[in-house]
Every structure is written in structure tokens, then in C-alpha cells.
From TrEMBL:
Keyword NAD: no
UniProt signal peptide: none
Name of the protein: 30S ribosomal protein THX
Species the sequence originates in: Aequorivita flava
Biased composition (Basic residues): 1-12, 19-29
Keywords linked to the UniProt accession: Ribonucleoprotein, Ribosomal protein
Length: 43
């Protein structure tokens, strides 16, 4: 268990792969800010 082991986090960092232990970073969804016109329509 170490740098050569595909099942450990350290091994995945060394090999350069991803998986359950080292998932890829997901970009989170950002909603656009509501405009002033949209805020007036809601009220």
C-alpha cells in the first residue's frame, strides 16, 4: 500500500487517476443574479 497501489489516495495521486477516493472536482452551478425588472414582477 503506497505510491504504486491504485486503490489508495496516494497511489491515485501518483498515477494521476481519479475514482471514489479521489473524485474530480465538480464545477458548481451558479444561478445568474435576478435583475431589477424580474424582482418587480415577482412582487
Amino acid at each position: 500500500m503506497g505510491k504504486g497501489d491504485k486503490k489508495t489516495k496516494r497511489g491515485k495521486i501518483n498515477i494521476g487517476s481519479h475514482g471514489k477516493l479521489r473524485p474530480k472536482r465538480k464545477k458548481f452551478n451558479v444561478r445568474p443574479m435576478p435583475t431589477k425588472d424580474a424582482q418587480k414582477k415577482e412582487t
